[in-house]
Amino acid sequence: MNTLDRRLAPFLRRWDYISFRHLHVFADAFAGYLRLPATPRLAHPLLRRHGVEIRREPLPPTVHAVWTRDGGDCLIRLSEHLPPGAANFTLWHEWFDLMAHHPDFPNKPPLRTLERCANRFASCISMPEEAVRRTFEELNGRGDKTTVMAARFVVSSSAMRVRLSELNLRWRYDRR
Ligand SMILES: [Zn+2]
How much distance in Å is there from the Cα of 106 to the middle of ligand 1? Predict the structure, then answer.
């Protein structure tokens, strides 16, 4: 077993079932288990620390990343076309994919669901609700600050936009 698998085993064993509907709960517990800061949450250094190799490669434009396991060794080939925000989100997605193939992952969701779960996990982890709400309150009233928030949370503007609408947060232009 590699470092990542060993580190995740006790955490994954706590769960009877992991489903799309309670992924926010799972993501919060994951963040607590690995003692992640509120923001920014960077997947790259954390994966490296757990022995996962990350290589930037010229993948086809529609492919963001590909992970492989060779015995205990994990490798993520990450598209060199991705800007930092999209790269971070993609690597969190890959975290979930790697976890879903861990021997202690409690259930095996079908591939389609798995991809949706991985995106939901990436979204909840990189843009935790509490921190998003707090930052939004701080910036609101001055117009659309989606790009500012995306930079703070190290995600793409489109991912930030989806998260804001999911949390029913709308920008205001206040008169001064
Ligand atoms: Zn995936």
Answer: 18
Question: Is this model's pTM higher than 0.85 or not?
Answer: yes
Q: Give per-residue pLDDT as tens, 109-143.
A: 788 899 999 999 999 999 999 999 999 999 999 99
Provide the 10 A C-beta neighbour count for residue 172. Answer: 9
The alpha carbon of 17 and the centre of ligand 1 are apart by a number of angstroms equal to: 19
Q: Which domains does the chain have, with CATH numbers?
A: 3-127 (1.10.10)
Q: Distance from the CA of 93 to the center of ligand 1, in angstroms?
A: 6
How many other C-beta atoms are found inside a 10 Å radius of the C-beta of residue 62?
6
pLDDT digits (tens, 9 = 90+) for 21-71: 999 999 999 999 999 999 999 999 999 999 999 999 999 999 999 999 887
Distance from the alpha carbon of residue 138 to the mean position of ligand 1, in angstroms = 33
The C-alpha R_g of the chain, in whole angstroms, comes to 17
Strands (E), the chain: 53-57, 65-70, 73-79
- Chain-centroid distance of CA 32 in Å reads 14
How far is ligand 1, taken at its centre, from the CA of residue 20, in Å?
14
